[in-house]
């Protein structure tokens, strides 16, 4: 398969820069076999059955984008340089991996000041990433980061507008609890408490898993032969209780439906070999057409970028020709695309 097999033309004005209000008012394209239904996210209660189980990623996005100043004494006196940092992931030695712009203006051992409470020292550089040691840890770090940082909006939104205070609410799921992601599990952004309550009343159940979505989710595929693409890895965890809940749902004839590609990738990782079990670690699972799904019966997801690994994933679930027709329909009907856009419910 070639990268061009997953390409399509998307009008720029269909890229959403703000979410629907309320969240559950977003449009929902339901693809059931060969039929497409135009719905709203609130209509999930019509499409999900008693005994179905939604799998939810409970990762919490950190305000990972920071603007700071580097100070240096020179012959002309004290000079400063603006430094932009995007945190990527905590490392085992207590430092954070980060993208730093411009990296050339920062030397090993120099400090960047983000606020009165938050500073970081550059400890090393590897593969184009800086390793930063912060002046505080734990709850103090979380509080200082929350005050100084901005949400790390995806590149296609950041190119159109800067992140603001509203994004700290909009770019976070209502059930987020395990801190560590630098990108949101965006299909989950459509849920609010009234919708969750309505689904519970219908007899739909919920299982929480954790996958800390990394910036690698936005990395472009650079090879034409997709089998040569090296997938990024992300840390995830499926508890024994979560695995047991999904197993029981399947045994009772219910459907296991992940909300978002992150939840799907994680549970398929944990179900390699045909049985889902407790699992924890880094997953770099790359789902392309021909993949044999072990646990997911359907998928709720947003509309994805052309030539992305996520286009390959939904093509694996629904079939390449079917996904092409679904996306052509979505564009013709002016569904909103990407992280703050509309949703689809894909029922193979």
Task: Describe the structure in brief.
Helix content is 22%, strand content 29%. The protein contains 9 helices and 17 strands.
Q: Biggest sheet: strands side by side, in what order?
A: 5-6-7-10-9-8
Biggest sheet details:
6 strands, antiparallel, barrel
Helix and strand run: EEHEEEEEEEEHHHEHEEHEHEEHHE
Strand content: 25-35%
Tally of separate helices = 9
- Rg over C-alpha atoms, rounded to the nearest angstrom: 21 Å
Distance between the termini: 21 Å
Write the layout of secondary structure elements.
Elements: E1 27-32, E2 35-40, H1 44-47, E3 53-57, E4 59-61, E5 65-74, E6 77-90, E7 96-101, E8 111-113, E9 119-126, E10 129-134, H2 138-148, H3 155-158, H4 167-170, E11 178-181, H5 193-202, E12 205-211, E13 234-238, H6 240-251, E14 256-258, H7 261-270, E15 279-283, E16 299-302, H8 309-318, H9 320-332, E17 343-347
Parallel strand pairs: 1-17, 3-12, 3-14, 4-11
Antiparallel strand pairs: 1-2, 5-6, 5-8, 6-7, 7-10, 8-9, 9-10, 12-13, 13-15, 16-17
Helix pairs in contact: 8-9
Describe this entry's structure for a reader.
- By secondary structure, this protein is of the alpha+beta class.
- It has 9 helices and 17 strands.
- The strands form 4 sheets. It has a 6-stranded antiparallel β-barrel with strand order 5-6-7-10-9-8.
- The longest helix has 13 residues.
- It is globular.
- The chain starts with 26 loop residues before the first strand and ends with a strand.
């Amino acid at each position: 398969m070639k990268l061009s097999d997953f390409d399509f033309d998307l009008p720029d004005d269909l890229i959403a820069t703000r979410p629907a209000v309320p969240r559950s008012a977003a449009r929902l394209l339901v693809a059931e076999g060969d039929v497409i239904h135009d719905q709203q996210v609130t209509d999930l209660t019509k499409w999900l059955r008693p005994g179905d189980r939604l799998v939810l990623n409970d990762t919490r996005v950190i305000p990972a984008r920071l603007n700071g100043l580097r100070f240096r004494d020179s012959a002309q006196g004290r000079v400063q340089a603006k430094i932009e940092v995007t945190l990527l992931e905590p490392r085992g030695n207590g430092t954070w991996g980060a993208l730093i712009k411009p990296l050339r203006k920062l030397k090993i051992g120099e400090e960047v000041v983000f606020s009165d409470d938050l500073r970081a020292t550059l400890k090393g550089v590897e593969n184009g990433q800086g390793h930063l040691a912060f002046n505080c840890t734990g709850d103090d770090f979380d509080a200082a980061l929350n005050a100084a940082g901005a949400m790390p909006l995806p590149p296609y939104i950041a190119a159109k507008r800067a992140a603001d205070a509203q994004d700290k609410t909009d770019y976070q799921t209502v059930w987020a609890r395990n801190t560590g992601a630098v990108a949101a599990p965006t299909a989950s952004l459509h849920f609010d408490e009234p919708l969750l309550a309505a689904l519970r009343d219908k007899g739909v159940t919920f299982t929480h898993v954790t996958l800390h979505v990394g910036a690698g989710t936005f990395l472009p595929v650079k090879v034409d032969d997709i089998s040569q693409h090296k997938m990024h890895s992300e840390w995830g965890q499926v508890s024994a209780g979560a695995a047991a809940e999904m197993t029981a749902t399947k045994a009772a004839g219910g459907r296991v439906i992940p909300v978002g590609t992150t939840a799907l990738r994680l549970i398929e990782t944990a179900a390699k070999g045909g049985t889902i079990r407790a699992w924890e670690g880094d997953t770099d699972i790359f789902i392309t057409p021909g993949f044999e799904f072990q646990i997911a019966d359907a998928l709720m997801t947003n509309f994805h970028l052309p030539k992305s690994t996520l286009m390959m994933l939904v093509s694996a679930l629904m079939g390449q020709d079917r996904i092409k027709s679904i996306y052509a329909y979505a564009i013709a009907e002016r569904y909103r695309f990407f992280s703050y856009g509309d949703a689809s419910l894909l029922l193979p």
